[in-house]
């Protein structure tokens, strides 16, 4: 650090006034720097002293660029964090950039310019602090678009602080359903506001939110935090006018509607209960029955829940899962005839098809579906014959017949039920 000091100037102006006579009396006034006059008076002499103010100027050389923390995105990344940075770079005047979440050369170059202006290392790979700085300097409301999909999920990444919430806008049609949860960010909360600024929807104990919108319009999602925090919120949305003409039954979940909105994971493990129920409610209407959480029918100390849409049901439980603990999750589904076109498996197979048609479809779809085996087994509870298709890693589709005879059924056996989520042996042979 270098300093330049201006010198102090003393300017003395002497005015001598001669007097013929007088006393030797004296008056003295003390001078203060920056005040114009100090006067010393005698009978014979009057002296005026002017003292100029002292001025000190300090010049500080700027420190070098601040080092970045761990990068949130780098060139070549394609994700919602990249999309957030593209939006903020455009908002702060470093665009125009296409906000597609693909962090390419143009995004990197714009980021380097922003980092230079923010006195940070111009690496093009921004960190949390850069996200916070760009967020604080952007006053615009960020639009969130869901118009292109009937069903779907959307991750939104941003940075919020106590004095500067991140505000998102979203256009909704009457009857649309949506759920929102915080996926990342300590101390992060959110509210959904209508055009009058009133909070809407219902929050559960874990902070998640859901509603069916009673009016069309533009709504705001206001995200707040206890300290400057990078967050991620997950939106699940279900359009009221979605043309749902098929629910496809797979060995590891359900594909809903023409967009094939997926619920379930490998072996159904870990998928959120509310997300699955809301998706099926959009497709099928309100459930015909919901047992609520109650004692598991087979395991002491565990809970389970059945949700029914007439002849189709979902099963949930809270059994302990590897790496997740005892969490409530989607466990399995069951479809019990009569035949209905909305529920199909591969190649349109459903209740009412024959075992031979199932086997042909399994052979056709084996590579894509992970169904590398099929076999007839007996259910030890009912002794019904079941054609199981799948494997231990990916799960099983279980095609149940009404045949409990002693002989393994032939290809002409009619399928009356379809289940998934558990091995088809159900404790049988």
Describe the protein:
There is one protein chain. The chain is α+β, with helices and mostly antiparallel strands and 429 residues long. It has 4 domains: 2-59, no CATH class; 80-136, no CATH class; 150-238, Jelly Rolls, CATH 2.60.120.380; 243-429, no CATH class. 14% of the residues lie in helices and 35% in strands. The protein contains 5 helices and 30 strands. The chain has helices spanning 80-91, 105-117, 128-136, 273-284, 355-369; strands at residues 2-5, 10-15, 27-28, 38-41, 46-51, 56-59, 142-144, 151-160, 166-172, 177-184, 188-193, 202-203, 209-212, 217-225, 229-238, 247-250, 253-256, 261-263, 289-290, 294-295, 303-309, 312-317, 320-321, 325-326, 329-336, 343-344, 374-378, 385-391, 395-400, 417-420. The strands form 7 sheets. Strands 19, 20, 21, 22, 25, 27, 28, 29 and 30 form a 9-stranded antiparallel β-sheet that branches. The protein has a 5-stranded antiparallel β-sheet with strand order 8-15-10-13-12. A hairpin with a 5-residue loop joins strand 12 and strand 13. The longest helix has 15 residues, at 355-369. The protein is elongated. The N and C termini lie far apart (84 Å). Mean pLDDT is 76; it is low at 1-53 and 425-429.
List the helices and strands and how they pair.
Elements: E1 2-5, E2 10-15, E3 27-28, E4 38-41, E5 46-51, E6 56-59, H1 80-91, H2 105-117, H3 128-136, E7 142-144, E8 151-160, E9 166-172, E10 177-184, E11 188-193, E12 202-203, E13 209-212, E14 217-225, E15 229-238, E16 247-250, E17 253-256, E18 261-263, H4 273-284, E19 289-290, E20 294-295, E21 303-309, E22 312-317, E23 320-321, E24 325-326, E25 329-336, E26 343-344, H5 355-369, E27 374-378, E28 385-391, E29 395-400, E30 417-420
């Amino acid at each position: 650090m270098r300093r330049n000091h201006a010198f102090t100037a003393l300017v003395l102006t002497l005015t001598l006034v001669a007097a013929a006579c007088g006393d030797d009396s004296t008056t003295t006034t003390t001078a203060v720097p920056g005040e114009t006059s100090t006067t010393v008076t005698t009978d014979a002499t009057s002296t005026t002293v002017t003292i100029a103010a002292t001025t000190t100027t300090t010049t500080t050389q700027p420190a070098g660029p601040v080092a970045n923390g761990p990068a949130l995105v780098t060139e070549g990344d394609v994700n919602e964090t990249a999309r957030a940075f593209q939006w903020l770079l455009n908002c702060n005047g470093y665009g125009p950039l296409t906000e597609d979440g693909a962090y390419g050369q143009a995004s990197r170059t714009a980021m380097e310019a922003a980092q230079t202006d923010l006195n940070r290392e111009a690496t093009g790979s921004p960190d949390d602090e850069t996200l916070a700085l760009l967020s604080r300097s952007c006053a615009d409301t960020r639009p969130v678009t869901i118009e292109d999909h009937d069903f779907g999920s959307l991750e939104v990444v941003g940075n919020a602080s106590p004095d500067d919430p991140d505000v998102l806008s979203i256009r909704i049609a009457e009857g649309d359903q949506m759920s929102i949860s915080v996926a990342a960010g300590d101390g992060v909360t959110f509210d959904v506001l209508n055009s009058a600024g009133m909070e809407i929807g219902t929050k559960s104990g874990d902070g998640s939110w859901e509603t069916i919108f009673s009016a069309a319009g533009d709504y705001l999602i206001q995200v707040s935090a206890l300290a400057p925090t990078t967050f991620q919120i997950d939106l699940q949305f279900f359009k009221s006018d979605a043309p749902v003409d098929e629910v496809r039954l797979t060995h590891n979940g359900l594909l809903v509607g023409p967009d094939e909105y997926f619920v379930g994971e490998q072996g159904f493990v870990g998928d959120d209960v509310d997300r699955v129920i809301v998706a099926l409610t959009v497709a099928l209407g309100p459930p015909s029955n919901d047992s609520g959480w109650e004692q598991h029918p087979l395991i002491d100390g565990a809970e389970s829940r059945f949700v029914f849409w007439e002849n189709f049901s979902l099963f949930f439980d809270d059994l302990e899962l590897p790496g997740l603990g005892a969490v409530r999750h989607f466990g399995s589904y069951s479809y019990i005839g009569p035949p209905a076109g909305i529920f199909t498996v591969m190649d349109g197979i459903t209740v009412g098809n024959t075992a031979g048609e199932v086997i042909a479809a399994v052979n056709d779809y084996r590579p894509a579906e992970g169904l590398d085996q099929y076999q007839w087994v007996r259910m030890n509870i009912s002794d019904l014959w079941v054609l199981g298709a799948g494997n231990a890693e990916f799960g099983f589709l279980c095609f149940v017949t009404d045949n409990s005879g002693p002989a393994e059924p032939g290809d002409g056996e009619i399928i009356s039920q379809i289940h998934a989520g558990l091995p088809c042996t159900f404790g049988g042979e």
